[in-house]
Amino acid sequence: MAMFRRLYGRDGPGHPVAMLLTYAITGYAVWAIFQNAEPWTVLLWLGGAIVLHDFVFLPLYTAAYRLAWRVGGVDQDRRRRVIALQHLAVPFMVSLLLLLAALPLIFSLSPGIYRPTTGMTEEPYLERWLAMTGALFVLSGIAYAIRVRRAGRP
Is pTM beyond 0.85 here? Predict the structure, then answer.
């Protein structure tokens, strides 16, 4: 085990096994996608997602995160600082990333591909995205309330 740690690092043998399993699942997913769709449409969607994320969503949630740091906290001594807008920025960022992933399904941008491949319709994706966004904000509000209550204790 000491030789393994010297060669691989301080992570145990479970880490490379988990990494290989992750790569195998990713490889299978890529293979399955290219079996059911035209490669150029997949590459076009991935390229668009990268551009949309890097030039639209990243500046938006970076600005939201910076705004969260400028707005004050709960404690005056700042030992336990609870930032209210941080609890809005995180679900906002996750919601935007989910929207990016579900955008073709929400706006039916893949007619003729999704239904024959999966056997399902694209209709419920807007409602699912809205429900997930609402759940993220509710959970974040609960976490904020717990943190504020704990920060108020001496």
Answer: no
